[in-house]
Amino acid sequence: MQRDNCSPLIGLGSARALANHPHFIISCTDVSKTAQNRAARFYSGERIWKYNPKIKLLIILRNPLERAFAHWNMQRFKGREPLNFLDAVKEEKNRANKAAPLQSRRYSYVDRGFYAEQIERVFKLFPTEQVKIIKLDEFRDKKSETLDAIFRFLGLEPKVSSRDKDRNIVPYEREMTAEERKHLYGMFAEDIAKLEQLLGWDCSDWKTEI
């Protein structure tokens, strides 16, 4: 059975140095307990700006289809989600309305994956030179290069070596079905295209319908 490290910010010696940086917040889009808290801060950029308008932000974006399914899987694993995936997605707005004015963090599977609007809010608050945005896949596939770029962004000396340590790994209940993936893609397609324009990215790897 597939297992998912629900925090893309793997524990390394390098990460300790990043975490100790006085003007730095990691904001990610995955669904471990730690990641949920960080994602909530990203979700509400105004609070970050009030804390420190000169702060530097690192934002790691995961394929929103995969993020939504992983979020649902984590809630199922914790016994918090009685609905199957598509039913939970279709019920998300009703659940959010019931939670208002609070955020429905537990069940915001799709809403948190609309990155373009969130990034636009960030750019209204922070100049682009204070924000670094990377894809989770790039972090995984080009870890050393990406970490070096992050350290340079922070004005820190790159680490010579790093040690990976997976955290918050849970088994997947099952794989995402073709029907579920197609349904999600229909929901995210416009936002993905908007994000590509906003960041100059090629997100073709996120656009597979089946």
Percent helix among the residues?
40-55%
Q: Helical stretch count?
A: 9
Low-pLDDT runs of 5+ residues are 5-22, 29-41
What would the CATH topology be?
Rossmann fold
Question: Please, how many domains?
Answer: 1
Quick one: CATH class? Alpha Beta
Main beta sheet strand tally, sense and closure: 3 strands, parallel
SSE pattern: EHEHHEHHHEHHEH
**Annotation, overall tally of beta strands:** 5
Evaluate the radius of gyration.
17 Å
Strand content: 5-15%
Strand order of the largest sheet: 2-3-4
What structural category arises from helix and sheet content? Answer: mainly alpha
Assembly category: single chain
Average pLDDT over all residues: 80
Query: Can you tell me the CATH architecture?
Result: 3-Layer(aba) Sandwich
Q: In one word, what is the shape? A: globular
Characterization of this structure:
The chain is mainly alpha-helical and 210 residues long. It has a single domain, classed as P-loop containing nucleotide triphosphate hydrolases (Rossmann fold), CATH 3.40.50. It has 9 helices and 5 strands; from the N terminus they run βαβααβαααβααβα. It has helices at residues 13-19, 33-43, 45-51, 64-77, 85-99, 115-125, 136-141, 143-154, 178-199; strands spanning 3-5, 24-28, 56-61, 131-135, 169-171. The protein has a 3-stranded parallel beta sheet, sandwiched between helices. Strands 1-5 form a two-stranded antiparallel ribbon. Helix 6 packs parallel to helix 9. The longest helix has 22 residues, at 178-199. The protein is globular, with a radius of gyration of 17 Å. It starts with a strand and ends in an 11-residue tail after the last helix.
